[in-house]
Amino acid sequence: MTRIVCNASPIIALSSIGSFHVLGQLFDEVMVPTAVRDEILNDTAAVGAEQLESALERGVVHSFPVQDQALVEKLSGRLHRGELEVIIGAVEQGISTVILDDRQARMLAKTFNLDCTGTLGVLLTAKAKHLIPEVKRYLDGLSDQGFRLNDRLYREVLELEKEL
User: Which residues partner with 116 through β-bridges?
Assistant: First the structure.
């Protein structure tokens, strides 16, 4: 059973390109901590709010409270509360993989011995499992939506996938 804990930015990014559904297709259990759920749902006009709310109602995504709020507070500063709750919540839930896009958050997650992937990793896995036909169209869509993707990484992903 593949369980993951996901941060807000991958949910928003995937929703912005119409691909939020791949999370439920790739993973047996998609979890979001309360801070991530609230960050997305408290702005009902936000990209991803409708998709997340529907997925929560259907049981495709599950929300949970992080118990060690003292540790979240102690680590607060450079990272957002949602990122910290993803990391700490994954440890509390016994989940070994997190989906985070922020480099600093990934570095912290690795200190907790968590495996990390991000929006691009989700898209690459979706292509490998034939859930999407190509990556380029989705990368271009992310770029059009303002998702930060440097040119070098863009080329590397397309070369890896033989789409350049």
Answer: 98
Cβ atoms of 141 and 16 closer than 8 Å: yes
Q: From edge to edge, which strands make up the β-sheet containing 29-33?
A: 61-64, 29-33, 3-6, 97-99, 115-117
Sorted by where each begins, the domain ranges of the chain are 3-119
Residue with tokens 């003292």: 70
pLDDT, tens digit only, all 164 positions of the chain? 699 999 999 999 999 999 999 999 999 999 999 999 999 999 877 789 999 999 999 999 999 999 999 999 999 988 999 999 999 999 999 999 999 999 999 999 999 999 999 999 999 999 999 999 999 999 999 999 988 888 898 999 999 899 98
C-alpha of 79 from chain center: 15
Q: Which CATH class is domain 3-119?
A: alpha beta
By DSSP bridging, strand 3-6 and strand 61-64 are unpaired
Q: How many Cβ atoms are within 10 Å of 119's Cβ, its own excluded?
A: 26
Residue with tokens 């259907």: 58
Q: What is this structure's pTM? A: 0.94
